[in-house]
Give the backbone structure.
Amino acid sequence: MFKIDYHIHTNYSSDSDADMESMILSAITKGINEIAITDHVDYHIKYEPPHYDDLISKFNVMKEKYKSKINMILGVEIGLESQLSDTINEFISSYPFDFIIGSSHSVCQKDLYFDNFFDGMDKKTAYTLYFTEMLKNINSIEKFCVYGHIDFISRYGTYNDKTLKYSDYNDIIDEVLKLLINKNRGIEINTSGYRYKLNQTYPQYAILKRYKELGGEIITIGSDAHTPNYIADHFEVAYDMLEKAGFKYISRFKNLKPIFISINK
Ligand SMILES: [Zn+2]
Ligand SMILES: [Zn+2]
């Protein structure tokens, strides 16, 4: 099986200290065939976006150095905010990305981790707003390939019970999934929930299955690793979920276009 990890951060992300080379070496050791370097760009007051020109220079040196051992593709994880769509669309068009993850890290210009987004809102209102804004993001931002960790808000909720059950939000989540499918965009399975001891993937199985039922075919798999040891972490769980949900393929990307690869072992 051709193995990929399509969500990897390095020290070009403000929340990682990992040198790019250490991530590549870990991926090679773990038998990964292709990785996407997807450092953060969030046009948000709390973040300084990385210097992508520097990142690309380093990326090109590393790609050449390790080309006989692993394939590397240039990606980005960009924080989606419909209010900032012009800036985001301009950034995306400025670099030769093969793969773009669009993620919701902030909602209505409030960062889910650093700001007080949840204050004064009950869980149902806050989580519904998160998905409603997602619809606006999908409609206003061009070119991203997959929506990142689609039900990630449950990691940040400040409620006693912060879990998010698909069945409690099925109408709005179905709208999001249908719009993504309509626009030929995919979703990722992100395994970082295991790192945070939340013992789940993002999305949870029910949402993955629903995406398939609605006709969705484009799936990538990513560890969201910020340190070398978490590359490809818990991927066996993700593959089991994919098979159970009826997927036969996952996707690689080139020039922002999916290439389907079989997940048969
Ligand atoms: Zn993210
Ligand atoms: Zn990430």
DSSP finds eight helices and twelve strands in the chain. Residues 4-262 form a domain with the TIM Barrel fold (CATH 3.20.20.140).
